[in-house]
Amino acid sequence: MSSTSTPRAAPPAAPAPATVAGDPPPPQPVRRPALDWRIRFAVLALIWGFSFLLIKVGTQAYAPFQVTLGRLLFGTAVLVAAMAVKRVGLPRGARTWGHLAVAAFFLNALPFSLFAYSELTIPSTLAGICNATSPLWGMVLSVVAFSEDRPTRRRVAGLGLGFIGVLTVLGAWQGFSGLDFGGTAMALLAALSYPIGWIYLRRTLAGSGNSALSMTGAQLLLGTVQLAVVTPLFTTMPDSFPVVPLLAVVALGALGTGLAMLLQYDLVAEVGPTTAQMVTYFIPVIATVAGVTLLGEHLSWNTPVGALIVLAGAALTQSRPRGSN
After folding, report:
1. Average pLDDT of every residue of the chain
2. Rounded to an integer, what distance in angstroms lies between the CA atom of residue 131 and that of residue 128?
3. What are phi and psi of 78, to 5 degrees?
4. 240-262 pLDDT tens trace
5. pLDDT in tens, 173-212
6. Cys staple from 72: which of 40, 117, 224, 277, with CB 3.0 to 4.6 Å?
């Protein structure tokens, strides 16, 4: 789901092959992807947009921690299979694994669990919109964490606009009536957790030399271990395994986590992080359409209007003036 990137903190592209200094670069075979990047972009947006619906369906039969554990387990299986096919090994070094364990908590274990718990009491549409606030949190945190990320007028305006959008979604003028504060707070905290993890990775493991696939595979593996420890402490084994919720958890992990991450990194490597991260703006739209049409969730006028304002604010926080890099 939302592995959306904060400003200037997108996943690294694969490094170019090294050549001997002074020699002309060897000819590289032209390998056309099986699918155009626009198709893969649309598939990624659909997968992440439907993830909130899959969470809602999964929690109808299984505890939130169980949904998260299944999600991480099946997502890890997809990445391990991709690593085996591409013959990519896991990263080495205790320091690297220690930092990845922290990243796994903030990027996977914590937000996935918070979203699962939040959807016990709030619609999947609202959870998807809360996820769209992640770039807003990221802008604030990046200014604090990195001196080079200075708050321009455009980015400050985007933050203010996004805040207005959040208040619109939540119906602030009517006293937040009918709103479940606990579920909404958990969804917003989940959105905040993502940029914390991205910034932590940027400060600790930038330029580590490991491939994105290797790092992500290890990160998901550690997240799975974390949930495997926590889940038995707070849940009991289900008496039955209903098919539809079980399939939702499998799809959430294999597609919404494993395949989605592979698509994301391929897009970053091909079209760059700026274009790839635009998928963020389609996720709440798809989540809203899926929740309303397939789950019959109620949609007040302020929800889509506020979501559009949030997305406009997020776009401003990630924009750059013309001529800047």
Report:
1. 84
2. 5
3. -65, -45
4. 999 999 999 999 999 999 999 99
5. 666 566 788 999 999 999 999 999 999 998 898 777 788 8
6. 224
Give the pLDDT mean for 201-227: 91
CA 1 → CA 34, 112, 253, 318, distances in Å? 23, 9, 10, 19
Which tokens in the block code for residue 164? 């207005």
Other Cβ atoms within 10 Å of 91 Cβ, number? 20
* Chain centre to alpha carbon of residue 60: 23
**Greatest Cα pair distance in the chain:** 69
**Three-state SS letters, the chain:** CCCCCCCCCCCCCCCCCCCCCCCCCCCCCCCCCCCCHHHHHHHHHHHHHHHHHHHHHHCCCCCHHHHHHHHHHHHHHHHHHHHHHHCCCCCCCHHHHHHHHHHHHHHHHHHHHHHHHHCCCCCHHHHHHHHCCHHHHHHHHHHHHCCCCCCCHHHHHHHHHHHHHHHHHHCHHHCCCCCCHHHHHHHHHHHHHHHHHHHHHHHHHCCCCCCHHHHHHHHHHHHHHHHHHHHHHHCCCCCCCCHHHHHHHHHHHHHHHHHHHHHHHHHHHHHCHHHHHHHHHCHHHHHHHHHHHHHCCCCCCHHHHHHHHHHHHHHHHHCCCCCCC
**Residue 196 to residues 199, 224, 259: CA-CA distances in angstroms?**
5, 19, 23
pTM listed for this prediction: 0.83
Give the C-alpha separation, 197 to 152, whole Å. 23
Which amino acid, one-letter code, is at 234? F
Alpha carbon distance 128, 58 (integer Å) = 16
Q: Both tokens of residue 51?
A: 């993830």
CA distance 41 to 282: 10
Could you read off the pLDDT of 99-114 as tens digits, one per residue? 999 999 999 999 999 9
Cβ–Cβ < 8 Å for 74, 260? no
Question: What token pair was written down for 219?
Answer: 């990160």
The separation between CA 25 and the C-alpha centre of its own chain, rounded to angstroms, equals 36
